[in-house]
Amino acid sequence: MKNLIKLFSILVLFFFTVTQLQSAEKVDYLKTDWSFKGLFGKFDRGSLQRGYQVYTEVCASCHSMKYLSYRNLGEKGGPEFSQAEVKAIAASFEVIDGPNADGEMFERPAKLSDKFVMPYDNVKAAQAANGGAYPPDMSVLVKARGGGVDYIYSLLQGYEDAPSGMTLDEGVHYNKYMYGNKIRMSAPLSDDLIEYGDGTKATVEQMSKDVTTFLMWAAEPHLESRHQMGFKAIIYLIILTILVYFSMKKIWSRVESEV
Amino acid sequence: MSDHEYTPTSKVGKWFNDRLPLLTLANHLTDYPTPKNLNYWWTFGGILTFCLITQIVTGLTLAMHYIAHADMAFESVEHIMRDVNYGWLIRYIHANGASMFFLAVYIHIFRSLFYGSYKSPREIIWIIGIIIYLLMMAAAFMGYVLPWGQMSFWGATVITNLFSAIPLVGEGIVTWLWGGYSVDNPTLTRFFTLHYLIPFLILGLVVLHIWALHVPGNNNPVGIDIKKPSKDTVPFHPYIVIKDGFALLMFMIVFAFFVFYSPNILGHADNYIEANPMVTPAHIVPEWYLLPFYAILRSVPDKLLGVVAMLSAILILAVLPWLDTSKIRSAVFRPLYKQFYWILVADVLILGYMGAMPAEGLYLLIARVATAYYFLHFLVILPVLGFKEKTLPIPLSITEPVLGGSTNLAMAKNKESLDK
């Protein structure tokens, strides 16, 4: 039993060491309560819907989200817009389809199955329009940055005047959370930049939180079912482990008494 | 192998078994006499078998949806994560499964080091084990390349470039490995092919590993030879099966926490950025399980010698049965070796940490000292220790320690003096 405790401690210690090592990097970031963290973490539906609004009205003019389809917006565990709403959202975008029977390409309104329409035709066009910097695709952006959601949330609110003595080139901005503090993107959010459909006050903080929540969902669309399944799986394993433990004790008692 | 002849009871069974003795094999596996004092550190053989099968099953499923092409690999992984039914689950099990596999193999290896399981007559088991470990590292490295993220691409570039250190033919070998003049589509497709092949090689070697194990039988915490079967042994089924099963379930709980609650924590964020040959990441870091060797590689200033040091660090393990001159297997009866064992464990952990840090200043200095100590342990301390160390008296049978209590040693001593 002593060895068993040692062994299990090693496994658990391994889990917590890596978890701690990772979170140690986030110390400086702005903190907020994320509803999707923890064993039962779920997305805040309202926040996701507002986040989509921020994305589509602000971010989407430069940032693509090429791995998402319009149908995802109505799927379970996401913003869960109604079918009618998602169809209306999709129909507001034009996509190029074809060739048709005459061999011509044609434009049509987007359908649920279409991927999110990209703001630029290709990377080069995106760079040309943004002073050489490519606005990264946002599909998995949250997972592609060391600090994750805390980093994105802080970055959106981290714009400040450059400290004296630091000279910034034309088109470069100071952001205290950016790696190297220099960022091509100008501050994307300002208070009341958009008008939320549900009447929530659109402060920079609120919009940062909403859009970051939306980005987290975009990167991990199955996060909710993962958490639900994880809880069930672990409860199941624990019960089975206990049962097997007692079976083991019973089986081994034959040997110990025999000796 | 088995001491007794097995005859199936049914006529059909006998007819079949005379032509292909599968039933004899099954009987051997269930009856296999196992020391009854095996502790939980011995359950990792079973756990590793589980890891290998999990990786193969999830890997096959992933391969049905993955596209090994430089332009489509990253996208196909996202397709798996989003649109394939439970694709996220399968991929996260596979990705974290690699880490769990290495966690288990390190415990398995260090158990062997502690209890001297590599010593005569088990050298072949040990050497097969080292080959499996090498193949695991190759499989894991190539697997990490497949998602074609930034770390995949640059990790592949850095590691394959190591071969350029070979004098004269180095550059040619690197071009040959890449299938071109940089890491690109040909590299990806061949890595995918090899990543698919290696697990089956490992599976074959695992069969040999177990076969070789079943000739002398298991070592045990006391490290003495035992009669098989005897009152010191129990049949593999049900005793060891249920014990291994219990330990496996505990292992799976930790595994499940990673998969369901921290699936990306063992990976690197940069690997969610699609590979871009024009942009180099700030820090190129291998996966955690390769870090100690990465630290050894970087602590040698010369590129060729660094590669040699890194390879030697692994290959030195293969000759360990002959470097360790002590006849006593278990560290329980080797007070000095026990201390050096724990220093080695600390040394490897330090190397791992230094591998994750930038190679400069104090980090580099510590890494160099730790590298030197690593080789010192195997090349000097172990051979000398065998001659110098005063070992504790070993019990005559494992039945005594199994009964528990500190009186066993005294009893064993008594018996020893009686024998004289």
Number of helical stretches of at least 4 residues of chain B: 17
- Give the helix/strand class of chain A: mainly alpha
Give the overall silhouette of chain A: globular
Number of strands of chain A: 4
Helix content of chain A: 40-55%
| CATH-defined superfamily of the domain at 32-284 in chain B | Cytochrome Bc1 Complex, Chain C
Give unreliable regions of chain B as ranges.
Answer: none
How helix-rich are the residues of chain B, as a percent range? 55-70%
Short description:
The complex is a heterodimer of chains A (259) and B (420). Chain A contains seven helices and four strands. By secondary structure, chain A is mostly helical.
Detailed description of the structure:
The complex is a heterodimer of chains A (259) and B (420). Chain A is mainly alpha-helical. Chain A contains seven helices and four strands; from the N terminus they run αααββααββαα. In chain A, helix 2 (45-57) crosses helix 6. Chain B is built from 17 helices and two strands. The model of chain B has no long low-confidence stretch (mean pLDDT 92).
Question: What secondary-structure arrangement, pairings included, does this model have?
Answer:
The complex is a heterodimer of chains A (259) and B (420).
Chain A: H1 2-24, H2 45-57, H3 83-91, E1 94-97, E2 106-109, H4 123-129, H5 148-156, E3 173-174, E4 182-183, H6 204-219, H7 223-258
Antiparallel strand pairs in A: 1-2, 3-4
Helix pairs in contact in A: 2-6, 5-6
Chain B: H1 11-19, H2 22-31, E1 33-35, H3 44-63, H4 73-82, H5 87-115, H6 123-145, H7 150-161, H8 170-178, H9 185-214, E2 233-235, H10 236-261, H11 291-299, H12 303-315, H13 320-323, H14 335-356, H15 361-388, H16 399-403, H17 407-419
Antiparallel strand pairs in B: 1-2
Helix pairs in contact in B: 3-5, 3-9, 3-10, 4-5, 5-6, 5-10, 6-7, 6-9, 11-12, 11-14, 11-15, 14-15
